[in-house]
Amino acid sequence: MKVLTLNFLTCAVKACKSSSDSFPLHPKDCELVSDELEVNSALLTNVLTRVDWKALTTTAAELGFPTLPATPPTPEELAGDEKMLKELHTLLMETQINEGKLVCGHCGHEYAVKEGIANFLLPNHLV
Amino acid sequence: MEYMIRFSQSHETFRLAEIEALAVLEGIKFQVTSYSASSPFCFFKTTSEDAAIRLVKRSILAKCVYEVWGTGLDYEALHENVVVTSQNVWAQYKTQTFKFFMDTFQGSRSIAEQRELIEEFRYLGFTGPVRMKKPEQEFCILEHWPFENVSGECPKPSAIHLGRYLGGSERDAIQKYDLKKRKYISTTSMDSELALVTANLTLASPGKLFYDPFVGTGSFPIACAHFGAIAWGSDIDGRSIRGKGKTNLYANFEQYDLKNEFGDSFVADLTNTPLRATTLFDGIVCDPPYGVREGLKVLGSRDPTKGKEIVYQDGIAHHLQAGYIPPKRPYSFLAMLDDILDFAALSLVPNGRLSFWMPTSNDQDEEIHAPTHPCLEMKSICTQSFNRWSRRLITYRRIPDSEVVASIARNRTPKGDGVSADDLNPFRKRYFEGFRPS
Ligand SMILES: C[S@@+](CC[C@H](N)C(=O)[O-])C[C@H]1O[C@@H](n2cnc3c(N)ncnc32)[C@H](O)[C@@H]1O
Ligand SMILES: [Zn+2]
C-alpha cells in the first residue's frame, strides 16, 4: 500500500470518524518496499489538492523519512522544482507498506497489510 | 463543412453519450445535425477539422470521422451534391497522393463494382498519384443499404455519402484488453469494450484519480488506466483482489504495462469505508453486486441481536486470530445504490463523474428507476438489452457546491433490515423467477 493511499484512509469504525485521533492511521511493524515508477507531475499536482499535509508529515516522520516542509508546495512551486517532485514521488507513489499493521489512534484497532493489500473489514462488534 | 462520425452499429444508446463526454473532456462545441440509432453515420457540425478529429480520437464506439463532401439518396444526387458542397476545396488536394475506398453498411460490392463507382469521381480532377499505403488523403464512399434487401427488386443503397477521412478512434483498444487474453478475470469481469466506454463517460484522463469500490478483478481501473488515470480499487472480498499466486488484480496492470497508473487495491466494505469523507477522486466507476452471480453483502451479523462484545476463543480474541473472516449479512441493492451516490457526493471533486451499472427487468412495471441525489446531475443513461433483462450504465456529474439547490430533499432507500437476499433485492427475485408474470 502506497503512502499516498494511507493519506486517504482513516479508521473504518463509524464511531472513530469524528475523532481527530483516527487519522492518520499509524504504521506498526511495517516492512517497506519501493517500486520504481515514472514521475507523473500532472498527477502530483492534482494529488497535492487532495492530500492532508499535516497527516502526511506525521506519516513521513513515522516511516523515517526526512522532515517535510511545514506547508505543501503550491502548484507553481512544485512545477519548477524537480527535486521536490522527485521526493514527493518517491514518498507518495513509490514507497509501499508490504507487510505490517495500521493502527487507529482512537480505538486501537489494527488493520493488517499483507502482500501490499490492507484489510479494512471489521469484526461484528465494531460494525 | 459538415463532419460525419462512422459509428460501430452496436451499443447504440451509448454512442452519443460517449461523444458528448469526449466533447466535455476536449472542450469542444459540436452539434449533431442528423443521427438515428439505426444508422452508423452521424452528421455533426463543429468549429474545425482539428476539433472533429479530437472529438473522435478517444472514442471506443466510433470507428473514424470524415469531412462530408456530399450526400444523396442515389448516385446521381450524390454527385450533384458533391459539386455543390466541396468544389471550392478540390484544388487543395489536386496534387496530393490519395486513395478511394468503400464502406458498404448492410450491403456489399464486388471489386469490379467498387472500381466502377470510384471511377465516377474522376471529375474531382485529382492528378496526384494513387497510393494504397499511407496516402496523404483518403476518400470514402459510404453506402447505407436497407436492412433487408427485398429479393427480385433491383437492390440499391438507400443513401450514399462521400467523405474525406480525418482520423480514427481508439477502437483497437477493445482487442488489446480482450478478456480472453487477460491474465486474471472472473465471471463478473466487464468486457473490454464497455469498460473502456465507461472510462470515457467518466472522463478518465492523465493525472486524474479514479476509484472502483467494487473492484473485483479490476476491469474498470484497467480501462481508466488505459486513458492515463491513476486507479484505486477495493472489494469486500479480498480473494477477488489477491487471486491465486501470480494471477491477481495487479498482474493485469503488469500485463498491460500500466504499473505507473496503478493506485492501490485494498479490502473494504463500501458501507463501512475507510476512505476519508472528503474530495479525493475525479471519477468513480463501478459495477455493483446485483446479488445474482455474486453476493451483495455488507459487514455485520445476519442476526441483529448478536452481541456487540468481542468474542474470545481459548482466551484469544477471535477477530485477532489468523484467517478470521468477519461475518457478513445481505443488504438491499437499492440501499447500496443510494450509498454509492452518497459516497460519490462526498468524494468527487466538483464536476467529477460517477458511472455505475445497474440491472433492470425489461418489463416496464418492474423497472428499477435510476436513483437521484441533489448533488449529482444525471448526464446519461445507456442501456444494454438482453432477452429478459437489461443493464444500464448511468453517469452523473458532481454539481459544484455553489450550484447545488439546497431545497431538494434527499430521498433514499432505508438501509433495510430484511433478512433474505430476495426481500432486499427485487431484481434478484425476479431474475430467479425467470421474469414470469407475478
Ligand atoms: C459485479 S462484481 C464487480 C466485478 C468487477 N467489475 C470486475 O471487473 O471483476 C461486484 C463486486 O462487488 C463486491 N462486493 C459485494 N458487496 C460489497 C460491499 N459491501 N463492498 C465492497 N464490495 C462488495 C463483490 O465481492 C464483487 O467482487
Ligand atoms: Zn478506530
TrEMBL record, chain A:
Main location: cytoplasm
InterPro entries, sorted: Trm112, Trm112-like
Gene3D superfamilies tied to this protein: 2.20.25.10
GO CC term, one of those recorded: nucleus
Superkingdom as given in the UniProt entry: Eukaryota
Subcellular location: Cytoplasm; Nucleus
Keywords: Cytoplasm, Nucleus
GO BP field: rRNA (guanine-N7)-methylation; tRNA methylation
Coiled coil location: none
Membrane spanning stretches: none
Record GO terms (molecular function): protein heterodimerization activity
Homology family: Belongs to the TRM112 family.
Record's protein name: Multifunctional methyltransferase subunit trm112
Organism: Coleophoma crateriformis
UniProtKB/TrEMBL annotation, chain B:
GO biological process: methylation; tRNA processing
Family membership noted in the UniProt record: Belongs to the class I-like SAM-binding methyltransferase superfamily. TRM11 methyltransferase family.
Keyword Thylakoid attached: no
InterPro entries given in the database record: DNA_methylase_N6_adenine_CS, RlmKL-like_Mtase, SAM-dependent_MTases_sf, TRMT11, TRMT11_N
Record keywords: Cytoplasm, Methyltransferase, RNA-binding, S-adenosyl-L-methionine, Transferase, tRNA processing, tRNA-binding
Main location: cytoplasm
Pfam family membership, one: Tmrp11_N
Organism listed in the record: Coleophoma crateriformis
Domain tRNA (guanine(10)-N(2))-methyltransferase TRMT11 N-terminal: 1-171
Location in or out of the cell: Cytoplasm
Domain Ribosomal RNA large subunit methyltransferase K/L-like methyltransferase: 181-295
Any one GO molecular-function label of the UniProt entry: tRNA (guanine(10)-N2)-methyltransferase activity
Record PROSITE patterns: N6_MTASE (PS00092), SAM_MT_TRM11 (PS51627)
Protein name according to UniProt: tRNA (guanine(10)-N(2))-methyltransferase
First-tier enzyme category under EC: transferase
E.C. designation(s): 2.1.1.214
